[in-house]
Design goal:
The protein has about 325 residues and is α/β, with parallel strands linked by helices. It has eight helices and twelve strands.
Length: about 325
């Protein structure tokens, strides 16, 4: 018997799976599963939930009238709760998964991470220098974070930023050195789906701001990424705890190994991309840095879709097994 899935999305059925690697992963997973699905675009009219087994909230990059959309999504989720219909990827933390929330929650739950402080003016910051200044929440560009070594440098960067069109710097983060004796910095990403932790990438860089744009593409980067993917995350329990502490079902978690064998957790993303399968510059850069083929990237993307579908089915079956 097919499981009846309702997908709540701010995109309609014609465009939800058209672009974005995470959307494509979900589409492929659904296509190969025993799930019958339909789309509900948040509106004042609540959907008919009488034949729904499970709901997936799939709202990303909300713009425009996003507050009204969130409110309507929560109305649907509240109705599901009353009817004991499980919800995957609830929107309750949709706005909360920003850098400051992640760092505060991780500190609370004993997950190794940097101290942080929100600020309006540089004079309010009480963390020790050097530190990282960045935009808090929803912005992940390499152009939106800066390493500063004293208050004068911080004040100058904040002032220059105020004259730009980009977001205001409003979060200070403790700078924790993670450079290895060989001169390289490392950064990892795992995708957490329910209780599963899927290794995604291991990047090597000569600079502290480890991004795909700054990642090395050489024999070392390929060997270390291959080992990470092949052997898996040795501290998967810790990464899983970091994801669960944020109260979300589907997350990409970014963290750095340190030379002494520990980890420093930096951020988590509800909406994320998986470069590799495409023909663009980022896809080519990812394959060069990891040594993966296009086919390997496709298989990895599909595995994420399969894990999401497995989570949906598991939650649906937990309800269906309860006598109605």
């Amino acid at each position: 018997m097919a499981v009846k899935l309702l997908i709540i999305s701010n995109l309609d059925a014609a465009s939800i799976f058209r672009r974005g690697s995470l959307n494509r992963a979900l589409a492929i997973g659904l296509r190969t599963s025993r799930i019958e699905w339909s789309i509900y675009n948040p509106s004042p009219v609540l959907p008919d939930l009488s034949s729904v087994d499970v709901v997936l909230t799939w709202c990303h990059h909300l713009t425009g009238n996003s507050r009204a959309i969130r409110r309507r999504v929560m109305e649907v989720e509240d109705a599901c709760r009353r009817l004991a219909i499980p919800v995957v990827n609830s929107a309750r933390n949709l706005r909360r998964i920003c850098h400051s929330f992640c760092l505060r929650r991780w500190l609370q739950y004993g997950i190794p991470c940097a101290l942080s402080q929100s600020f309006d003016t540089v004079e309010e910051i009480s963390l020790r220098y050097p530190m990282i200044l960045r935009v808090d929440g929803g912005v992940h560009s390499s152009l939106d974070s800066f390493l500063v070594h004293d208050r004068n440098e911080a004040a100058q960067i904040v002032k220059e930023r105020e004259r730009s069109a980009r977001g205001r710097l409003n979060l200070a983060i403790e700078y924790i050195p993670t450079r290895f004796p060989d001169g390289y910095y490392r950064k990892r990403r795992c995708i957490a789906i329910g209780d599963r932790v899927i290794p995604r990438q291991h990047m090597v860089s000569q600079v502290w701001k480890v991004k795909l744009s700054s990642a090395e593409a050489n024999a070392l980067s390929v060997a270390e990424d291959r080992a990470f993917i092949g052997e898996g995350e040795s501290q998967a329990d810790l990464v899983g705890r970091a994801a669960r502490a944020l109260g979300c079902d589907i997350l990409a978690v970014d963290y750095s190994p340190t030379p002494d064998g520990n980890y420093v957790f930096w951020e988590a993303n509800r909406s994320f991309r998986m470069a590799g399968p495409g023909n663009g510059v980022k896809a080519a850069k990812f394959r060069e840095a990891t040594g993966r083929s296009v086919q390997e990237c496709i298989e990895e993307r599909n595995a994420v879709g399969a894990a999401i579908v497995e989570l949906i089915l598991r939650k649906a079956e937990s309800r269906l097994s309860i006598p109605q």
